[in-house]
Write a structure and sequence with these properties.
The complex is a heterodimer of chains A (258) and B (511).
Chain A: H1 23-26, E1 40-45, H2 51-66, E2 81-85, H3 87-93, E3 95-96, E4 109-113, H4 117-128, E5 136-141, H5 149-162, E6 166-171, E7 182-188, E8 205-213, E9 219-225, E10 230-234
Parallel strand pairs in A: 1-6, 1-7, 2-4, 2-5, 5-6
Antiparallel strand pairs in A: 7-8, 8-9, 9-10
Chain B: E1 2-5, H1 8-17, E2 30-36, E3 39-45, H2 47-52, H3 60-66, E4 71-74, H4 77-90, E5 97-101, E6 105-109, H5 120-133, E7 138-142, H6 146-155, E8 160-161, H7 168-172, H8 184-192, H9 198-203, H10 206-212, H11 223-231, E9 248-257, H12 260-281, E10 283-294, E11 299-310, H13 313-323, E12 333-345, H14 355-358, H15 364-375, E13 380-385, E14 395-398, E15 419-431, E16 438-443, E17 446-459, E18 473-480, E19 485-491, E20 503-509
Parallel strand pairs in B: 2-4, 7-8
Antiparallel strand pairs in B: 1-6, 1-7, 2-3, 5-6, 9-12, 10-11, 10-12, 13-14, 15-16, 15-20, 16-17, 17-18, 18-19, 19-20
Chain lengths: 258, 511
């Protein structure tokens, strides 16, 4: 089997993609406010909380802020965004609520309530092909048969071709095979005490783990949207990875880690 | 010219049964009834029934006592109005403008057309003849103003004409006050005042009438306004009926087609014809109906509604393609017809030569159309704010491309969850004191320790639309030990006299 020719010119690589000896040290770390150019991200979250949708919206907003403004545009970007939910996701975690959405996204939402995961995937793909959408959020519960690696790759190709980013939220899902460039595991984190009432819940906080990324080192952060930008701080009580359990499939496991 | 169809509903029933006047079922007493809050009421009655004593506006029970053999049929006011609209268009043969005078009249502007028919008398005779040939009994009159013509048609002599030079009050003075097209209560008042004829009103001083009838907004409640309109001192605009033909293209097929590929080809041809037709009109289609006539006389109709006006043939074909899957061709389709029943103005747009290649992808309207066709119109919607305190009523859903209604800004100090459950789910809550903060709750089989809570935010029921027994809600914003944030509420308070111990529900999930 012939050796693939080593790529020497870094300009040929995608931004942040490093190969060769010592690549893992030289691979950049993700931080908020980075124009990742990532068209397809997946967030694994529990259906008992809205953290997945919350972080997806926050990251999408972050990406919109970071995007270079169009010099010829004379009006600010008010393109709508699509939020697709399948029936199980709608039942488990509820539907978007207008007064609770971020203020700048509030009136730009187009909601699609699909019955089956197949319909949800169709709606996602149609949304990704639409040039008038800012981004697309999908919410699919569990591991439906329709959402296999092929479907995931299909969504990724459509997103990259048309430049519409996709944030796919997987509720209560196993980490099966997927083509997403960045895969996150999201859960809620205790919020900082607010200034005036220490007994009240504070600003929305997430513990987000980037466990699989194409161009960035994996990591775990405490993320918070302070209204102007997404703020990250390193996850404090990070426990060492637990390798004791048996692995039941290839899944998203990093083969190099073993 | 005013035309009064004296028995429009009965004539329409008779024509639909295919009977001549006074023959067959029309010889028996028959009434058309409408349902009211106080039981069935007679809307119209035929001649035999009226002779027997059953008159319109009488209760059916009363009429049955007078005439036990009275037959009944349901009245159809919507159908009568549709017939009247058709008649209004048809009667434009006597004048360029015609207006409806519901429930059973027509007004036609015949200014300067009488000489085409050989004079006013022949014009009127022609109209009466034409209506009689259609089997409709009418009374018609010609006058310089619409009000005068209406008064003559309803209360004047048969085929009365007021020439432009005549003094109208000479001819109209003897008519009753009801000839002024007034509301019932105003007519009653005039009768109590002793003003029974138009001549009585005309003889009075204007000041006295103007003081008595002060409503100048609605002409139907002010006899002075009506009198001025009748005499031509005040303008009375008519709302004309204009026929709009829906753009229609069709293909008659030499051989009946039974295969899907051929049907797709026909639909593509029709879509291109329709695009050409609509482009010439400067219109875009919002709703399309595709009718497929089969050899055995069966018709299959597929409707399509677009989110925005369009005439792009490729887009239309793609939308129809998903709708044609379940068409049963039977012995073959011999005629396919495409009709745009709802169109909107759509100007020609500049084709982008270079940008079209670069900015690929579909437009938003096309995307919404594709989603709507597959998932249904109820699935693709956008939320809009609604003025209500109740959280589940504070947002409504509307089709995505309709303009947002104006609404007030929400209060910035209200914390609202990112998502709400369609139906609040019951949770078991342990709390410190009956009205105190919750401590722990169980939801979907898992116990959440509440670390922090804020509340209550009391939201009272909307008493103006709900029953008095509906309980208020105390909302708490809580965060559990793991940092998960929820919106839960206690339904009612202890001792509010609206049920037993309050229950707890979870309604929202904060991000």
């Amino acid at each position: 089997m012939p050796e693939p020719a080593p790529i020497t010119d870094p300009a040929d690589l995608m931004p942040g993609l490093i190969r060769g000896i010592g690549a893992s040290e030289r691979t950049p770390h993700w931080r908020p406010g980075l124009a990742t150019g990532c068209a397809q991200s997946e967030m694994f979250a529990s259906a008992r909380e809205a953290s997945g949708a919350g972080l997806a919206l926050a990251l999408a907003q972050d990406a919109l802020r970071m995007a270079a403004p169009d010099p010829t545009a004379d009006t600010p970007d008010h393109r709508p965004f699509l939020w697709v939910q399948d029936k199980a996701a709608l039942r488990l975690s509820g539907r978007p609520y207008l007064p609770g959405l971020p203020a700048e996204l509030r009136h730009r939402l187009i909601h699609v309530a699909a019955t089956t995961p197949e319909d949800a995937l169709f709606a996602l793909e149609e949304g990704l092909r639409c040039r008038d959408l800012a981004f697309v959020i999908g919410e699919i519960a569990g591991n439906p048969r329709a959402l296999d690696f092929t479907a995931s790759r299909r969504l990724g190709l459509a997103a990259e071709k048309h430049g519409v980013p996709l944030w796919l939220i997987r509720l209560d899902a196993r980490h099966d095979l997927g083509a997403a460039r960045m895969r996150w595991r999201v859960e809620a984190a205790p919020s900082p005490p607010p200034r005036w009432n220490a007994h009240a819940p504070g600003a929305t906080t997430w513990a987000a783990e980037l466990f699989r990324a194409h161009t960035y080192q994996p990591g775990k952060w405490i993320l918070r949207d302070d209204g102007l930008a997404l703020v990250a701080q390193p996850y404090a009580n990070a426990s060492p990875p637990d390798h004791g359990d048996l692995v039941h499939g290839a899944g998203d496991r990093s083969l190099a880690a073993f | 010219m005013a035309i009064w169809c004296t028995g429009l509903a009965i004539d329409r029933w008779r024509l639909s049964e295919g009977l001549a006047r006074g023959q067959g079922a029309d010889a028996e007493p028959l009434a058309l009834i409408e349902d009211t809050a106080h039981g069935p009421r007679i809307a119209a009655a035929n001649h035999a029934a009226q002779v027997a004593g059953a008159v319109p506006a009488m209760r059916l029970a009363d009429a049955r006592t007078l005439c036990p053999a009275l037959g009944v049929r349901p009245a159809d006011p919507a159908g009568d109005l549709a017939l009247l609209e058709n008649l209004a268009l048809w009667s434009q043969r006597w004048g360029p403008w015609s207006a409806l005078d519901p429930p059973d009249g027509l007004l036609i502007d015949t200014t300067g057309v009488a000489h085409l028919f050989g004079g006013e008398r022949t014009l009127l005779a022609d109209a009466i003849n034409a209506f009689t040939r259609r089997g409709l009994g009418i009374r018609a009159a010609l006058a310089p103003t619409a009000g005068a013509a209406w008064a003559l048609a309803h209360f004047g002599p048969e085929a009365a004409i007021i020439a432009p030079g005549d003094d109208p009050m000479v001819r109209l003075g003897g008519l009753p006050a009801a000839a002024l097209r007034l509301d019932d209560d105003v007519i009653l008042l005039l009768r109590r005042l002793g003003l029974k004829r138009l001549g009585d009103l005309h003889g009075l001083a204007r000041d006295a009438l103007a003081r008595r009838f002060r409503n100048r907004r609605s002409a139907a409640s002010n006899p002075l306004l009506r009198l001025d309109q009748l005499l031509g001192r005040l303008p009375e605009p008519l709302l004309p009926v204009i026929s709009v033909t829906a753009p229609l293209v069709q293909r008659r097929l030499m051989e009946p087609i039974r295969h899907r590929t051929l049907l797709d080809q026909v639909v593509a041809d029709l879509a291109e014809d329709m695009a050409r037709l609509l482009e010439a009109l400067g219109q875009g289609a919002r709703r399309l109906e595709l009718g497929m006539w089969k050899v055995d006389g069966d018709v299959a109709i597929r409707r399509l509604e677009m989110a925005a006006a369009t005439r792009d043939p490729a887009h239309l074909c793609r939308l129809f393609a998903t709708r044609l899957d379940d068409v049963d061709a039977g012995f073959g389709i011999e005629l396919v017809r495409l009709r745009a029943s709802w169109t909107e103005p759509l100007a020609l747009a500049q084709a982008q030569l270079d940008a079209a290649a670069e900015r690929h992808g579909t437009s938003l309207a096309a995307c919404v159309d594709r989603l709507t066709v597959r998932l249904g119109p109820e699935a693709v919607r956008r939320p809009i704010a609604h003025a209500s305190h109740l959280p589940e009523r504070a947002q409504r859903w509307q089709p995505p491309l309709i303009d947002l209604p104006s609404s007030q800004e929400e209060f910035a100090f209200h914390h609202r969850p990112l998502k709400i459950l369609d139906k609040p789910e019951s949770v078991a809550v342990i709390y410190e004191t009956p009205d105190g903060l919750p401590r722990r709750f169980r939801w979907r089989g898992e116990v959440h320790e509440i670390a922090r809570a804020e509340g209550p935010e009391r939201i009272a029921p909307e008493w103006w639309r709900e029953r008095s027994t509906v309980r208020l809600r105390d909302y708490y914003r809580i965060e559990d030990a793991a940092g998960r944030r929820y919106w839960i509420y206690r339904h009612g308070v202890i001792g509010d006299g609206r049920g037993g111990a309050p229950e707890w529900f979870i309604q929202g999930l904060f991000a």
